[in-house]
Amino acid sequence: MGPLIEAKVAEIAQRPKSLQTYIVGCDFDGTVTETNEFPRIGNIRPGIKELLLRLKAAGHDIILTSCRSGSYLTSAIQFIERQGLGCVFSAYNAQSKLAPPGLSGKLYVHFLLDDSATPGDFDVEAWANYLERIGVILPVTAKPGRQSKNRRT
User: Fold this and answer.
1) According to a count of CB atoms within 10 Å of the terminal CB, is the N or C end of the chain lower?
2) pTM for the full model?
């Protein structure tokens, strides 16, 4: 595990448990991007930027979990930064000090956003709805200027 990741893991471990923050792993190919065409990087998946920013705004830590390494990982990180998602930092099967004793050396996360772990196409909206329902992120409120259909004007 690199020094950046070790420092971040140590910081997370020191947080009071009452803050209800989570570690969210996010795959790159097919999850952040629309398609999984490694080594090519396609377009950003619609809705993923907003979901990741909502998770970050709620105080959760987002970790890029990718099988990419070397220059391929560097390209993925550069793509993420160009999308305005510099809040994501990378790790590759790093041993987490937050993992319960006896677990493998894989990265320990509370939630994993990964197209290969979901049947069919990765559904960003379904994930957002689920994370809202269990209280991980707040529901999106009505946009200013919109009026409720039941409100009299």
Assistant:
1) C
2) 0.72
Do 22 and 110 contact (CB within 8 A), yes or no?
yes
**Where does 3-14+22-133 sit in CATH, by number?**
3.40.50.1000
Say which DSSP state 21 is in: -
3-class secondary structure, 127: helix
Q: Is 108 helix (H, G, I), strand (E, B) or coil?
A: coil
Phi and psi dihedrals of 112, rounded to 5? -125, 115
pLDDT number for residue 14: 62
CA distances from 1 to 47, 56, 118 (A): 30, 22, 28
Return the residue matching tokens 């998602």. Answer: 85
Among 95, 112, 105, which residue's Cα sits nearest to residue 2? Answer: 95
How far apart, in whole angstroms, are the C-alpha atoms of residue 147 and residue 153? 9
**pLDDT top residue among 51 and 70:** 51
